[in-house]
Request: fold
Amino acid sequence: MRAVKGLMPNKSKKTKRKIPKEVREDVHVKMSDESPLSDIPAGTGGRYVYGIVESREPATFGKIGIGGAGELVYMIKYLDIAAVVSNSTVFIFDPTRENALAHEHVIETVMKGYTIIPMSFGTVFRTDDDIREVLKSIYSSLKDVLNQMAGKLEFGLKVTWDRDQIIEELKQEDEEIGRFHLEIVRKHLQSTYLARMQLGRMIDKAMGERSSQYVREIYESLRGVCVASRDNQPIGDKMIMNAAFLVERKREAEFDGIVNKIAKKYGKRLKFKYTGPWPPYNFVNIRLKLERVSSS
Reply:
């Protein structure tokens, strides 16, 4: 379940910071015709996979599995890595709110004691042995990702602003925009439509520049306490920043403090929605891309 760390008056916008390439990992798995991910007949059962951890000893996490049947969540090990799974009689899970929350709850439970590389929602294998086969085939890739993500957490930061409020501020603070606006108000001319179009373009340009300025400032403030950052597409007209940050677990409190400090700096002008900690959803891309090969 997503833990909202705070809703804060603040704002920020995006500046592109490159994520180290080695942080992201696409996993290609070559399978025989007897692939463990071949179609599982409905009702025959399977293993729902939540993520991958590093562990030398097996462990269980309680009867909290997806599906509402109280299935035990346990590990399926191969050498010193393991898949976190629960039994399932369903092959295809609908992405309902209940199922999504159950999936997240398991991952959050595991996170308390392990670095977990999350699998995408709805990943189901046939049996424990099938999962071990896949863990064996991509062992080195998984170990690399687990080593790089060890001791790191992801935090989300969404920043919104009130466009009307910012526009009014620009009219007051930007001399050119303010003067042009007053001329339109005072002169009821036939050319007012074109003048308003020109004013709109001036405002859009100024808002883009201000937004970029805020984002640069926020990223600069957080640069020293995060390992990497990623920009995601803003949602709606009011959102100017939708970012994810990868932070070392031992620096979580320091990161929190700086986010709150930035929020106070911008006051009511910007609003922050700060969430986490999460596993590194935005920084690891584990895709089991199957490539069929003949049994010969």
Summary: Helices lie at 97-111, 128-137, 139-149, 163-173, 175-186, 192-222, 252-266. The chain has two domains: 24-151, 155-278.
